[in-house]
Design a protein that fits this description.
Elements (H helix, E strand, L loop, with lengths): L29 E6 L30 E8 L14 E8 L22 H9 L2 E9 L5 E3 L7 E3 L4 E5 L18 E3 L4 E6 L5 E5 L18 H10 L53 E4 L9 E3 L11 E2 L9 E5 L7 E6 L13 H9 L2 E8 L4 E6 L18 H6 L1 H8 L7 E6 L6 E5 L2 E2 L16 E2 L10 E3 L3 E7 L8 E9 L24 E6 L13 E5 L11 E5 L8 E8 L5 E8 L8 E6 L5 E7 L5 E7 L32 E7 L8
Parallel strand pairs: 7-12
Antiparallel strand pairs: 1-33, 2-3, 3-4, 4-5, 4-6, 7-8, 9-10, 10-11, 11-12, 13-14, 14-15, 15-16, 16-17, 17-24, 18-19, 19-23, 20-22, 21-22, 23-24, 25-26, 26-27, 27-30, 28-29, 31-32, 32-33
The structure holds MU-OXO-diiron (FEO) and calcium ion (3 copies).
One calcium ion (CA) binds next to loops.
Length: 681
């Protein structure tokens, strides 16, 4: 890319200290603004949000738990795309989950056991999904949202969607709602994201399984194969939650013909798949493509990319004549890293095609889904998940019937080929200069990563006592970031090399075996999650791309709120081999060899931002000029109650406090530099 000069750029800010303040803290010389708070109206005539639990009509408001977000530029006026715009655009944001206690005046009624009131369930459902809003920069670098933006849009779990790719029309997708298995309703638990050069947004369905009603004892009328699949994906809920996370299936709607609640009931109650909702869980767990510039087009579920607990879906480099790829984490303990390689080589003119979702059909509906296997010597392989190959056949323990079955049950196919179980694969990010792929492995516990169960790619087992009582926390409670270099630097590769870029840890922990990356107090973090390289071209004629690392701390929230760090990483192999001595209960030790990247320095890794109380730092994107970044602040005050919220952010942003009963809201923090320069440099 001729726009990029790979020369040293300095991280031009002073590190932000760890803290537990109820504000978004940024370096001196930076400004925080807040847009798109939970409940903000995004259509004409929708009343302002009262934030007292009485508000309704969330299908026309910003949803809760904003997670990944991405900027899509607009021309100066109208609805046309302008990918270069840094002052007017669309923010596409995921709304992953809800803080149910703040959505109702005194908390929810009968949750989750039921019977749940219809009006409460409607609000909760509509708080999930995706929002698209028009945002722009005005004078004084003030960012505002246009409530009446022509492309403003909510996609909720009730929005009509269509299925594309090999699973479209499969018996596995047939339900009362879609007798031919080609359509569905909405999307849920949208976590991280992806994008395309043709201007569409990709959203991913992560922890969808828990919303469905089905006890683990609910096996009558099911085949052994079905039960294996439901269990593998967690559609069991068990004895503690047999009605699903929020008990929506327990609603008796005023309109008896409505199925918007019943569809969350996955129990077998009819004579066939199209007589009940047993297959409804198969309609979730996909990657979904949305055209943010055309509200008339239904989102398309891209089944060729497999059904997982999809965290994110980030593309590799687009090279003319080469087949593009998307890298995908499946976030659960001991799940895998996947890659989808399109069947079609990239044609540059497709980036500006008028029918964007038709270009999606071209690149995302046929191709090969691979899963990663990491070897101890720093090499690795991409194993294809193709019916009839490598044991993925009718003779497998879970007998596969066809490629649709393989894609619906991609986790089971990945088990067959011997993929490497990871410490919770979250976001992927791709260095726009080198093409190297980064993957956050947020953390794991002792059951998921026991002392005797480490491997080179998931090498640590230790105790990081945390919390007021210093509760023992064995396993890999701080997580790590692994990175891959594709053989031949091409997305089409079936092999790669890898090393571990960073290990999460407190700076006070054992430097030999736990704080392996040697993090200082200006750099230390736990549980990396969001991960993003800012765009390489900007007004400053940039330089090395910045890597932004967001945390969802499992083991460090006794010391600090979650955070955002900026980094300038090197390349795979810039470090070397290393042996870690792990320690389990009773002081028992074991060694594990691994591959570790060069340690960060004060110049290559710094804490840029700390969030408010009980939040997670989620989505991030910058304008193309790099002068504005948008950061998702998710679920502040998630542990509080309506009577005693544990955070009051964003109302607390200015002073650190707000009225004692002011409810917290997820929101997007807009960060700009007072001198007008590129954020981070
Ligand atoms: Fe929704 Fe794995 O984070
Ligand atoms: Ca999240
Ligand atoms: Ca995440
Ligand atoms: Ca997380």
């Amino acid at each position: 890319d001729t726009n990029v000069t790979v020369n040293p750029a300095q991280l031009g800010f002073t590190a932000v200290a760890k803290n537990k303040l109820d504000v978004v803290s940024v370096p001196t010389g930076y400004k925080v603004q807040v847009v798109n708070r939970t409940g903000d109206p995004i259509a004409a005539a929708v009343p302002a949000y009262k934030n007292d639990g009485t508000d309704t009509n969330f299908a026309q408001r910003i949803g809760d738990h904003g997670d990944a977000l991405y900027w899509y530029g607009l021309a100066a006026t109208g609805t046309a795309r302008d990918a270069t715009s840094s002052t007017r655009g669309l923010l596409v944001q995921n709304h992953e989950n809800i803080n149910i206690q703040y959505l109702h005046p005194a908390g929810p009624t009968n949750a989750p056991a039921g019977p749940r009131p219809e009006a409460e369930a409607i609000k909760e459902i509509e708080c999930h999904g995706v929002s698209i809003t028009e945002v722009s920069e005005g004078t004084g670098r003030a960012w505002t949202v246009l409530q009446t933006g022509a492309l403003n849009r909510r996609i909720t779990p009730n929005t009509p969607v269509v299925f594309n790719g090999p699973v479209k029309g499969s018996d596995l997708l047939k339900t009362v709602f879609s007798a031919d298995g080609t359509t569905g309703r909405g999307t849920i638990n949208n976590c991280a994201n992806g994008t395309t050069p043709w201007g569409t947004a990709i959203t991913c369905e992560e922890n969808w399984a828990g919303y469905f009603r089905r006890a683990s004892t609910d096996v009558a009328g099911r085949t052994a194969k079905e039960i294996t699949a439901l269990t593998r994906y967690g559609v069991t809920n068990g004895s503690t939650n047999p009605v699903g996370n929020f008990g929506w299936a327990t609603v008796t709607p005023a309109d008896a013909s409505s199925t918007v609640f019943k569809r969350w009931d996955a129990r077998v109650t009819g004579a066939s798949a199209t007589a009940d909702f047993r297959n409804e869980p198969n309609q979730m767990g996909w990657v979904v493509e949305i055209d943010p510039y055309d509200a008339s087009k239904a989102p398309r579920k891209r089944t060729a990319l497999g059904r997982l607990g999809h965290e994110g879906c980030w593309p590799g480099a687009f090279v003319v004549g080469k087949k593009p790829a998307w890298y995908m984490g499946d976030d659960s303990r001991r799940e895998y890293l996947y890659k989808f390689v399109s069947a079609t080589a990239w044609v540059a003119a497709d980036a500006t095609a008028a029918d964007r979702l038709a270009i999606g059909d071209k690149y995302l509906d046929s191709g090969t889904l691979y899963v990663a296997k990491f070897a101890a010597d720093g090499s690795g392989t991409w194993l294809p998940l193709v019916f009839g190959q490598n044991g993925i056949t009718a003779a497998a323990t879970y007998p596969f019937a066809d490629q649709a079955d393989v894609l619906v049950h991609a986790r089971l196919a990945a088990d067959v080929v011997g993929a490497t179980p990871m410490d919770r694969p979250e976001w992927t990010a791709v260095n726009p200069v080198t093409g190297e792929v980064y993957l956050t492995l947020t953390n794991n516990n002792a059951a998921g990563r026991p002392l005797a169960g480490t491997d080179a790619a998931n090498p640590r087992h230790y105790n990081d006592p945390t919390g007021a009582a210093a509760t023992a926390q064995f396993g890999n409670p701080n997580g790590h970031i692994i990175r891959l270099k594709e053989t031949g630097d091409t997305t089409e590769a079936t092999a790669f090399t890898w090393d571990i870029y960073l290990f999460g840890a407190g700076a006070d922990l054992d430097a030999a075996n736990i704080n392996v990356s040697g993090l200082t107090a200006d750099q230390d973090f736990s549980s990396p999650d969001g991960l993003y390289f800012s765009r390489p071209t900007n007004a400053a004629g940039q330089v090395k791309p910045l890597l932004w690392i967001e945390t969802d701390d499992g083991a460090y929230t006794d010391v600090t709120n979650c955070m955002l760090l900026a980094a300038q990483p090197g390349t795979v192999g810039d470090g070397g081999a290393r042996t870690i001595t792990n320690t389990g209960t009773g002081g028992v030790t074991a060694t594990q060899a691994t591959r570790v990247g060069a340690a960060p320095t004060a110049a290559t890794l710094k804490r840029f931002l700390v969030g408010p109380v009980e939040c997670e730092i989620t989505g991030i994107d910058s304008t193309p000029d790099g002068r504005t970044i948008f950061v998702g602040i998710q679920h502040p005050g998630e542990g509080g109650t309506p009577a005693a919220p544990s955070s009051h952010w964003p109302d607390s942003q200015a002073t650190g406090t707000a009225g004692a009963t002011v409810r917290p809201r997820s929101a997007v923090a807009v960060i700009t530099k007072n001198d007008g320069g590129v954020v981070g440099l």
